[in-house]
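Homework help thread (please don't just give me the answer)

Our assignment gives two proteins as sequence + structure token strings and asks us to describe the second one. The first is just a warm-up. Here they are:
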Amino acid sequence: MSDHTPGIQLSQLFYENYIVPRLSSAMSSLMYASALVGPGSEVLGFDTPMSRDHDWGPRVLIFIREADVSQRESIWAALHTTAPAMFNGYPLHVDQTIVTTVSAYYGRRLGLPRSNFEGLELLDWLTIPSQTLAELTGGAVFRDDFGELTTARTHLSYYPKDVWLFLMASVWNRIGQEEHLMPRAGYVGDELGSALIASRLIRDVMSLCFLIERRYAPYPKWFGTAFRQLDCSNKLFPYLKEAQNAKDWQERVQALANSYQIIAQMHNDLHLTEPIDAKVTPFFDRPFSVIGGSRFAEALVSMIEDSSLRKLAAYKFGGIDQISDSTDFRAIRERFESPSGETNPIRAFFERLL
């Protein structure tokens, strides 16, 4: 891996040594933005020699103004004419250099018919996977002459406060619903079932950590890698690993109990609600240590100002990341949202509950 060039670094070299000279020569007055955003392990900084797949290589996105869309063919000609086969030792596929507008690209990725990102409604946020938001706010911007790209990324930098509270509450509810089921399964001799529930709880704890630290969680391929970059990971990782590798349910209970108490204190350190007891207690008269996730969920919901989100919070299932881990289901908004304003099925689902 010593000879690996990170994708972001390669893209910046491509922008500086290929894109800039060609556009400056052919269209010196063109105002544009250039960045590496969107799908790709390199956008999140997780690319390796093994992950050089899909569109990995020297590439950038070029964003032009709506008024300059008519010049797209001239831009393509400037980039394609006598294009070399290689750049910096890597195959060059110029057709991977997308020329678009900020509203068209971000609107399509978000599944929105409108280009005003500041008008993104709270319900819309619930339909967008955190992976997509990480892709659109990650990567690197190499140039932004008219500021629209920077504005879009800034607006999407993290969830609005009410959405943030709503999502944290939903994860606490998930913990509260299953924290006592893991030891109950083990208690009757179902160690496999107990281990499966423990894995779900570990994922929920990790998801909550991303939310508490205000970081978009990536999809499963990089979920654990990104978790190790969180401030809390050094404290939590040993307990989560112990819970994952435990030989029996008693070990899992203790390891998860330690994890619960850490994230409970992390919640209190946010000062979003009144302090909540961060100690685990027995589940009624049974020998199962629980944190009582619903206590934290209820406290967070009480702080939500938007009436629609407060009403949705009563259903306890959260946003699209909590509803399903199906890749195709999470991408459904891109397939169904149209420029005519047709609402995607996920948004429609939330609206029917209001």
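The one we have to describe:
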Amino acid sequence: MSEKLKVGILGGTGMVGQRFISLLENHPWFEVVTIAASARSAGKTYEEAVGGRWKMDTPMPEAVKNIVVMNVNEVEKVAASVDFVFSAVDMSKDEIKAIEEAYAKTETPVVSNNSAHRWTPDVPMVVPEINPQHFDVIEFQKKRLGTKRGFIAVKPNCSIQSYAPVLTAWKEFEPYEVVATTYQAISGAGKTFKDWPEMVGNIIPYIGGEEEKSEQEPLRIWGHIENGVIVKAEEPKITCQCIRVPVLNGHTAAVFVKFRKNPTKEELIDRLEKFSGFPQEAGLPSAPKQFIRYMEEDNRPQVQLDVNYENGMGISVGRLREDSIYDWKFVGLSHNTVRGAAGGAVLCAETLKAKGYITKK
């Protein structure tokens, strides 16, 4: 048996579950040994359970095709086979909270793509380049759960990845007011154009719950730990509109920012290009070498040309210019199902392993 950590994917048949499986193919540290899903998929091979619903551009990895899918509700049985799990289950928020806690209480770390625990006070919500120190709250969470190695960690919403890292890179200039409009791909709803033909040539100016997440989640990421819980930051104030657009992968954001200090364009671009964090310092396997790149061309970043920058783990920024009402404005682009979903969670797990939170059972 290899020295790799044994990984389970909860909700492995859905779009994000499939993305986890494709990203973890040939991963140097992690090996998918268990896939769990609903009772209707349990007992089938992964290939049979997914059938014609494989949504990735790359073929299904051979190594997972014959894995027999387990029932995600058989928590003890699934947990016994793995060192930790990624969670991408499709259930109600209350059901997700309950099942993720149940796995954590079997002493199995849970790295979740779901939103259910993003506001649980002692659950860290992390973009590893921005706030890896929030993983320190895990010790308090373990006390609450009564565990020695089991815990839950989450990654934030996909929509904030194209602007929250940018604002973090500019922290020294004190951004205090932000207007952002996100143009979000249909894969964010777990769909392809085949599933959702009415999105072809269409825009829907509403995505349930997304605007609240886009306004509030960055503040939690920029927050601090106090008395064993994460306290969110007060600023910058963010107001958002979130629009579904006819794009398969890639969330674009048009953003306006007011600063207390008066940066030059050169300073702003310099801070973007130099911005890095723990994943880059530690050389983590999924870390982009350059997290944020600035593009000088007037017509970039573009989804078709730029969404896969740094294997989908990097962020592309362009059109930085002074604004007549706000101070500066820019356009950001991130891959919503790689950096914004499964890839962001894989990078969180790599960070947790590097920091000693995830080990062999």
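TA reply:
I won't write it for you, but here's a hint about the kind of observation we're looking for: The chain is about 25% helix and 20% strand.
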